[in-house]
Amino acid sequence: MSKTTSGTVPEALDVSAIKKDFPVLSQTPHGKRLVYLDSAASSQHPQAVLDAMDDYYATSHANVHRGVYALAEEADRRFEASRLAVGRFIGAPQPEVEVLFVKNATEAINMVAATWGRANLQPGDALLLTDIEHHANLVPWLMLAEERDLELRWIPMGDDYRLDLSDLDRLLSGVKLVACTTMSNVLGTITPFARIAEAAHQAGAVVVADAAQSVPHLSTDVRSLGCDFLAFSAHKMLGPTGIGVLWGRAELLEAMPPFLGGGGMIRDVRRDGFSPNVLPWKFEAGTPPIAEAVGLAAAVRYLEDVGLDRVRTHEVALTSYAQEQLAARFGDDLRIFGPAGTDERGGVLSLAYRDIHPHDLSQVLDQSGVCVRAGHHCAKPLMRRLGVSATARASFYLYNDESDVDALADALESAGTLFG
Amino acid sequence: MPGLEDLYREIILDHYRSPRNRGELPEPPAHRAEGFNPLCGDEVVVYLVVEDGIVKDIRIAGQGCSISQSSASLMSAAVKGKAVGEVRDLIRTFKAMMSIHEARLGDGDETTASDGSGPDGEEPVDVNQLGELAALQGVVKFPVRIKCATLSWNTLSQGLDEAEQAS
What we know:
The complex is a heterodimer.
Chain A (H helix, E strand, L loop, with lengths): L14 H6 L14 E2 L10 H13 L10 H20 L5 H4 E4 L2 H16 L5 E5 L8 H10 L2 E5 L12 H5 L2 E7 L11 H10 L3 E5 L11 H4 L3 E5 L10 E5 L1 H6 L10 E5 L2 E4 L13 H17 L1 H23 L3 E3 L11 E6 L4 H10 L2 E2 L1 E3 L4 H7 L4 E5 L6 H18 L1
Chain B lengths: L3 H4 L2 H8 L13 E7 L4 E10 L2 E10 L2 H14 L4 H16 L46 H21 L1
Antiparallel strand pairs in B: 1-2, 2-3
């Protein structure tokens, strides 16, 4: 819930105050201020999230769902309250049954492939993916395609680093499922997801959103996105590792077979079979990540208190500043793989600087306390499309400011000097 | 805490900027071996001509970071013209240097094992034998980069196996 109404300019973030909320940012690697520019891989935690998890463990831990004593009831209450908070955050119409806690976005997508996919896809059926997907939204489908002999089709990326939808209707013809990212973890590209989903539904396909990069940064409403499934991870949105979310439309989840078998997901077990529990527990076998759910809800509260529209406005301004500074200081020596401007992109800058290898770049930047990620970013097909084996990627969040961008630019300059 | 000067020695930067024995060789007579570092996408291709038990010629292709590429270049210069047995010894010595515990390369002598042996009771590594290759010993202080330095050596080892099987 944002503090401002739409149509007004949101109040600017007080980033120096926000930085103080994140204990890790007071670390000084190599004696330098920590400049954390790797939030697209994993974000940092405000004290409020750490406190919420500590408090849960210190006062309220017991196993959920089966205890008939006050402590267990409190654990259960906090766990289910977290589900509702997360559901509200993404506009879920029925959060109490549609929000499934899983390990991360990867597991969420694997769950859709293994359950909905196996129940609904036959040899020869077609799936539509895109050129810019993360391996988490590729490999589960490649595995299923191999198992079921499915046809894979691809929405191409244009030279402007955006999805090229000019051939979308033909690509969608006869497709059973579309799996698409809402924001590229490499390019920052925000995809025209709602448009793709609408066309996909007209073609009779089910639509999966890999929203791991967008839920932390953009206000999300599953109904306006038009997806049938939405996957994201807590650890990219100020929450803990070990927990993610699969949201699915209730009628689809009802019809799907269970994923993992075990305690909690059953209504009855006999020697000759079992009947599954009702939603959402049908998909939550075993003791769930309870403290992590509490931590995720605290992260959601933190983001709601700040206001996601303010976060977005801040990141747009910071991305724009970074684009200007890097262009002014490095000119053609530095290339950014991603859309120009800031309208349809997030705060993710994949860089090539001269011919310095991204690993060398990242190593030199580390000496200045600047953390960027170097590598293929779990998007090898996209890397091949870009014609590179790796990039160095700087990504921004609400705790970054212009001084962090300046530190990045200074560190890039020292890398340039070292490698001549 | 190790500094960048431990990693990016001048010899390393020189071999990165001006790699030796860069290119390809026709197969046959050359044997070709490929090595990948799936973590970072580094790729080294070693072309090897072995005649009468001697590494007559070697070329290096592929792409990657300064450590993987300079290590390949230094390696090519070190093994060209050497007997296969000597080359295998050098591979062992180099890989032993790359597996020395970080503490043994620290500033304080007191951290060095008194018998000078490597881990698992291996023979002590005499980096003086390694000549210019010793410039790469600083890589050990940056554990995530060790695989970059050893990539070409593992690929060479594989190429030697193939060359010897074929002969």
